[in-house]
Design a protein that fits this description.
The complex is a heterodimer of chains A (about 475) and B (about 325). By secondary structure, chain A is α+β, with helices and mostly antiparallel strands. Chain A folds into three domains: about 120 residues, RNA polymerase II/Efflux pump adaptor protein, barrel-sandwich hybrid domain (OB fold (Dihydrolipoamide Acetyltransferase, E2P), Beta Barrel); about 70 residues, no CATH class; about 230 residues, 2-Layer Sandwich (Chloramphenicol Acetyltransferase), CATH 3.30.559.10. Chain A is built from ten helices and 20 strands. In chain A, strands 11, 14, 15, 16, 17, 18, 19 and 20 form an eight-stranded mixed β-sheet that branches. Chain A has a four-stranded antiparallel β-sheet with strand order 1-8-6-3, with no helix packed on it. Chain A has a four-stranded antiparallel β-sheet with strand order 5-4-2-7, with no helix packed on it. Chain A is elongated. In chain B, helix 3 packs parallel to helix 4. The radius of gyration of chain B is 19 Å and the shape is globular. Chain B has twelve helices and 14 strands. In chain B, helix 7 links the parallel strand 6 and strand 7. In chain B, the strands form four sheets. In chain B, strands 9-11-10-13-14 form a five-stranded mixed β-sheet, sandwiched between helices. Chain B has two domains: about 180 residues, Rossmann fold (3-Layer(aba) Sandwich); about 130 residues, Rossmann fold. Chain B is an alpha/beta fold and about 325 residues long. Classes of the chains: A alpha+beta (about 475), B alpha/beta (about 325).
Chain lengths: ~475, ~325
Amino acid sequence: MRRDFLLPDLGEGLQDATVVQWHVRVGDTVHLNDRLVTVETAKASVELPSPFEGRVALLDIGEGDGLRVGERLASIDTSEDGEAAAPRAPDAALLPTGAPTGPVTRQPVLVGYGVDVVPQRATGRREWRRRKAPGRRALDGGEQGLGTTPSVPATPPNGFPVPRPLAKPPVRWLARTLDVDLHQVRPTGSRGEVTAEDVRAAAGSAATGDAAGSVGVARGEAMRQDERPSWPGGTGASGLAGDDRPEEIPVRGVRARIAERMSLSRSTIPEASAGLWVDCERLLALRAALRDDLRSGSARDVGGAEALTPFAILAWMVPFALRSAPLLNASFDAAAKVIRVSRAVHLGVATGTELGLLVPVVHGAHALGLRELAGELARLTRWAREGTLTPEQLTGSTFTITNYGALGLDDGLPVVNAPEAAILGVGAIAPRATVHDGELAVRSTAKLTCVFDHRVSDGADAARFLGRLKALVEQPELLLGTR
Amino acid sequence: MSAVTMVAAINAALRDAMDGDDKVVVFGEDVGRLGGVFRVTDGLSDRFGPQRCFDTPLAESGIVGLAIGLAIRGYRPVPELQFDGFSYPALDQALNQLAKYHSRSGGLVDLPVVVRIPSFGGIGSPEHHSESPETHFAHTAGLKVVCPSTPGDAYSMLREAIECPDPVVYLEPKQRYWTREEIDLPLRTEPMDQAVVRRAGDDVTLVAYGNAVATAMAAAAEAEVQAGLAVEVIDLRSLAPIDVDAVVASVEKTGRCVVVHEAPRTLGIGAEVAALVQERAFYHLEAPVLRATGFDTPYPPARLERDWLPGVDRVLDAVQAVWEQ
C-alpha cells in the first residue's frame, strides 16, 4: 500500500518549508523514524523522521525547492502485511505526544493535535452510579415503592398528560421524607401549589397508626423510620381489615444479602459479648466546643461542624482503643488455621437505608484526623441513603460499629460482620441517674457493647478495648498522649 | 479611636506595608507627584521617594506588565489602575499573564501583585469611570478578587492582599471613599476570603459587596420598618473565591435570597451566587433567588445613573417578591 507523507506543521503555524537534503533515494528501504529529509523553515532546520515503514516510492520535491504544509513530500510503499497497512493519521508520527495513532479520528490542523472527525464518546472509565433505592419514588410519581400501587395511571383517562404538581423545594423534601406522593395531595396554596400543611395532612390520613407523627421527625436523623415496607393492597386500617392473608415480600437484593451475611455470621462465629456504661458529659462538651470553634473560629468550616457528631468523635476514638486489643481488629481463617490481625483499621459503619442495612467503610480510619473521619462518615452515610455507594465503599472493613443509639435504643446485641472478629454497638446517649463522684447524679451516659468472635479473642481483650474506649470518652485529653 | 475615611485607611495600609517591606512598590497614573486622583496615595512619594511610588505613562497594559516583571524579580508591586474602565486595556496582561504565570511555571513563580482599581459608579463621572469590572476578573482562574465595603476592611484586606503570594484584584468602592468608621489603625478584620454578616435576620438573606452593601443595609432597615421583616445582610468581601458556606448557612436559615450588585445582571456575581445557592441549599429555598442589579446596558450618563443603579427601592421590590412567594 502506498502512503503519502505530507509536510506537517513544524512549528506554531508555520506554513511552508524548503527541502535542504534528502537522506534517502527512491527504492531505499526505510524503517519507522529513520531520518528521511532535512527541511528548513522560517524558524529552524529540522530533520523529519519517516512516519512509515517500507520502500521509498516517490520523492516529490527537489533539494532547494519549497513546499507548503499539507503538500506531499514523499510516498512510501508500506509492507504488505495487514498490520503495517492499518489506516493511520497521515502524519501520525509527528503528532504531539499523546495524540492517537489508531484509526483516523482527527483532522490535522496548523496548531494543536487536530480536530476530531468522529463524535466524542464516553471514556468507559466512568460507571453509572447505581439507581436510587426502589423504595424511593420520584418526586412527581414515576417508579413506585415496594408494593405500592402506582398513583398515576400510565395513560390518563382523558388522554392529557398529568401535570407536575407544584410545590416549593422544602415541601418536596417534606413529601419525600414522609413518603407522600404529591400527585395524591390536594393543593391548597394560592398559586395552586401543594403546601407543607397539605403534605402533613396527607401523611396523617394515609399512615397507619401514629407512623406519620414519628416519621415527621425522621429528616436528618441517623436512621429513617420509614424503612419498613409499605403495606401492599392499600394503606391503613382498611388494608388490614379487608384481608388477613399474610403478605409475601420477596427476599432479594440487599435484604437477601443481609440474610445471607447474618446467617453466615451466626452459623460460623461462636460469639460472646461484653458491655459497659460510659459517662458522655465530657464527650458532649468536647463536641460543643469543637463545633463552636468550627462555626466561628479561625479554622471556620460550617459543613465540618455539622458532621462532628458525638458518634463521629467516638468512631474516631475506636482505632486508638483497638491498639489495646489488636485481636479485635482481625479475622479468623478456619481453613488456613490462622488469625489475621489487620495493621490498619478500616471502619465499617452500619447504616440504615431504605434498602436495608448497609455497611459503608471508612478506609484507613486509623490515619484520619477527626474532621476528616467525621466528614467521610457524613458523606458515606448520605451516599448510603441515596444508594450511590460504590462497591469499594462497601467492602474491606476490618471492624464495624453500629449506632443503634440513633434509633433511640439503649442497648443491643449486634451480630458480628463476618469475617471480622468483633463489632461495637453504641447505645443512645441520654441523661440517666448515675453515680458520679460517689453521689447520685443525672449525667448523659451511653451503653457500649462489644460482640466478639471467641475463637479469636477472649473477654479480657474486650475488657481492654472497652476499658480504653471508656477512658478516652470520659477523658478525651488522653488522646493527646496517643501519638 | 478616630473616624477614618476609606481613602485614609487605604493610604495607611499602603504606607504601613511600604514601611514594613521595602520590596513593596506603588505605581500608576498620577499616584506619585499628584498623590492619586482620589488622594489615596497622598504623601507616599514624598515619604518613600520616587523609586518606590512613581507615575507611569497612560498605558494600563504596561502598568500590569511592569508589575508582573517586578514580582518575578522579588518585588511586591501594588499598581493602581486609575479607574475601573481603564482596567480593560490591561486585561491582556491580567488575564493572560498575571493569572496564569504561577501555573504556567509549574508553581515555581509566585506573583504577589495587588492591582488596585477604584471601581463602580455613583459619583457622577463620565463613561469609563463607573464600570463594574469584577466579573471579568472573577471569571478568570488564578486571580483573587476582593472588595471591601468599610474603612476597616479596606485597611485589613489591603494589608492581607499585599502579603498574599498570589495576584489579588482589589476593587475599591469609590462611592464609599469618604465614608468614615471609628477604628484604630492598624487593625485586622476577618480574613479576606470570608464573607461577613453585617446585619442578622431570619426572614430574607441579602448578599452584596462594595457600594451595594450600604444599599442592602438601608433596604434591610426599610424592610423592618415597612413590613417587620428581619433581613440578614451578607457582605461577600471576596468575589473569587466566594465564601459559599457563609451564604448557604444564611439561606438555610431564611430560605430566601436576593443578590445586589451594580454590575449588569447577565453573568454577574449574582448569577454565580444564585447557582451556588440552588446547588447547595435547594431544599431550603422557599422562593427563587432574585437579583437586584444594574441593567444590561452600557453605564448611562451621570444624570441618569441614580435610576440605573440598584437603589433601595429596587432591592425592596426583590425582597418583597421573595417574601411573598
